[in-house]
Amino acid sequence: MINYILRRAAYALPILIGVNVITFVLFFVVNTPDDMARMNLGMKSVSEAAIVKWKDERGYNKPILFNQSASGTKKLTETIFFQNSVKLFVFDFGRSDSGRDIGYDISQRMWPSLAITVPSLIVGLLSYISFGLILAFFRGSYVDVSGVILCVIMMSVSGLFYIIGGQYLIGKFLHLVPISGYDTGFNAIKFVILPVLVGLVGGIGASTRWYRTIFLEEMNKDYVRTARAKGLSELRILYRHVLSNGLIPILTGVVVILPSLFIGSLIVESFFAIPGLGSYTIDAINRQDFAIVRSMVFLGSVLYIIGLILTDISYTFVDPRVRLN
Predict the structure, then answer these.
(1) What stretch of H or E contains 156?
(2) N or C terminus of the chain: which is more exposed, having fewer CB within 10 Å?
(3) Distance between the two ends of the chain, CA-based, in angstroms?
(4) What sign does the dihedral 22-26-32-37 (CA atoms) show?
(5) One domain, residues 30 and 114
(6) Tell me, what's the pLDDT at 67?
(7) Torsions phi, psi of 141, nearest 5?
């Protein structure tokens, strides 16, 4: 197991290097520091002295890859690439273009994001899998047909409708919970109920339909027909065999969600004024703070790779045929 994890981590290193290099090229070669300065200071009537000052304050006045004027290892370390890209591999995110400590901001803003995404993931998985099992159990009946039609309708509705509709109905009309904002401690519960509920309702259509498809595919396999021939009830077949064998594609789908546990939901956090990492990224894009955007792109890549490794490991618990060597 340890050898497998180390091998996968070694495979992930070239991917992270590639993501880092591509991000660096996009931000510092295609979009030069001079262009960044003009976008932050204003495209028109920007003096050369103001551009130089802006770059000096943020360390963008150094050579991009190689510093010929330096000596020794500083030829490589005193460069924009080392200062803004290589340090990311030790999770030194540096400072934003506005002067804030990015690492500190991430450590503070990750908790509001987790307060929304973790309940949404856990409750969502339990709900969607249960709905998928119900539709699969009543396959071909009016319950199944009506459920599929409802899922398609809910899939066709924009997520913004659920957000705005939820804010109006639950927050403004019924006055059950606040429409937006956030607080610390147990006071945060009343602020996260509505975003979690909106996220759950918005995902019912696509997720339930997908899980239903997985379970129906399993129910048409030979081992299910054999279990029926032995006299096992449909409920026992469904929960004892179909569900356990359908966990592999379910786990594969969960890995896509794992990075969002920390990164947060960009749209939900922005609409509900949740000070998480999602709104942090959106605000950085609006302010054109490229240091924050680079850090969030790199962090998202790391979390996604960790999710892939955890998914492969979890396969060994749900499928004895899988062995990690």
Answers:
(1) helix 142-156
(2) C
(3) 6
(4) negative
(5) no
(6) 81
(7) -95, 180
Cβ burial of 135 (10 Å; 0-12, 13-18, 19+) is buried
Q: Residue 100 falls within a domain, yes or no?
A: no
- CATH number of the CATH domain containing 235: 1.10.3720.10
Q: Is residue 125 situated within a structural domain?
A: yes
Q: How large is the C-alpha radius of gyration of the chain?
A: 25
Query: What pTM was computed for the model?
Result: 0.80
Give yes or no for a contact between 238 and 133, defined as CB atoms under 8 angstroms apart: yes
Long-range contacts from 75-81, C-beta under 8 angstroms, 24+ separation: 80/28, 80/33, 81/24, 81/28
Residue 323 lies in a domain: no
Structure confidence at residue 318 (pLDDT)? 66
- What are the C-alpha distances in Å from 164 to residues 195, 260, 281, 297? 11, 22, 21, 28
What confidence score (pLDDT) does residue 44 get?
65
User: Is the domain of 82 the same as that of 119?
Assistant: no
In a domain, 20, yes or no: yes
Q: How far apart are CA 303 and CA 299, in angstroms?
A: 6
The pLDDT value recorded for residue 147 is 93
Task: Name residues of the chain where pLDDT drops below 50.
Answer: none
Confidence at residue 148, expressed as pLDDT on a 0 to 100 scale? 93
How many structural domains is the chain composed of?
2
State CA 304 to chain mean position distance: 8
Task: Write out the two tokens for 103.
Answer: 């690492």
**CA distances from residue 151 to 18, 146, 206, 211, 234 in whole angstroms, order as listed:** 39, 9, 7, 12, 24
Which residues are CB-contacts of 253 (< 8 A; sequence separation ≥ 6)?
Answer: 210
Which domain, by its residues, includes 75? 2-90
Considering the domain architecture, whether residues 49 and 142 belong to the same structural domain is answered as no
Query: What φ, ψ does residue 176 adopt, rounded to 5°?
Result: -85, -40
Of the residues 90, 125, 157, the one at which a domain ends: 90
- Take residue 294 and report the two structure tokens written for it: 């680079």
With beta carbons less than 8 A apart as the criterion, state whether 224 and 233 touch. Answer: no
Q: For position 131, what pLDDT does the model report?
A: 93
